[in-house]
Recover the amino acids of this structure.
């Protein structure tokens, strides 16, 4: 039952004027997290499909697109078609999450479902059988650099339990406030994909920060 931690630096904390270089600086990451915000689902606006396509063309790391947008069914397949490894939509924004998962997978990507900190897991357990990734938000979506919400950890634990029994088969990803101080709790609770924005791009050496996070997560998973 050994899990291997995956580290996904978030471009939200990178220098937007140098996205190609910023993707190279994290070349040894597992996924490159790409936060799409529409100023409706969340009170912030970032980048969309054309920017994703430009990054996808040069990134040495597969893209993990996190769509914090209304009507994700309309846009999600485009990110998959563009070559994203994983495309995640928010449960709170979807009318038919299963249909979105089907469309994302048909377009060649893994399908992810994200839950805000206040959204419970239980109503989505059956729906999640059609997904490859569960993204548990550990901050309110919208901004980088926020503090990790410890109260969300039971949701991570429950998801890991459902994977452990074989009821679900998916990556358990955490996003928000992940750094050297918090990654162990998240790993111990059962996460295996760790998004880190400020902890990676705010470090003097992002590659070193990734290695340190990976090491801490791996140790916590074994312990
Ligand atoms: C927040 C985004 C996160 C963000 C995390 O809405 O979904 O991916 O980049 O940033 P940190 O790691 O700084 O909390
Ligand atoms: Zn994100």
């Amino acid at each position: 039952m050994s899990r291997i931690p995956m580290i996904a630096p978030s471009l939200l904390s990178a220098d937007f004027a140098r996205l190609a270089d910023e993707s190279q600086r994290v070349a040894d990451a597992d996924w490159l997290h790409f936060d799409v915000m529409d100023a409706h689902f969340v009170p912030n606006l970032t980048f969309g499909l054309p920017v994703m396509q430009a990054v996808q063309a040069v990134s040495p790391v597969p893209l993990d697109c996190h769509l914090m947008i209304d009507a994700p069914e309309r846009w999600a397949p485009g990110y998959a078609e563009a070559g994203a490894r994983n495309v995640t939509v928010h449960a709170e924004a979807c009318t038919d999450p299963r249909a979105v998962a089907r469309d994302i997978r048909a377009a060649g990507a893994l399908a992810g479902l994200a839950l805000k900190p206040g959204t419970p897991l239980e109503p989505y357990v059956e729906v999640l059988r059609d997904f490859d990734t569960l993204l548990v938000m550990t901050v309110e979506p919208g901004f980088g650099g926020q503090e990790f919400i410890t109260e969300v950890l039971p949701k991570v634990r429950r998801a890991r339990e459902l994977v452990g029994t074989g009821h679900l088969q998916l990556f358990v990803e955490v996003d928000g406030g992940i750094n050297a101080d918090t990654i162990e709790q998240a790993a111990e609770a059962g996460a295996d994909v760790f998004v880190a924005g400020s902890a990676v791009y705010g470090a003097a050496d992002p590659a070193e920060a990734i290695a340190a996070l990976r090491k801490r997560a791996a140790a916590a998973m074994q312990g």
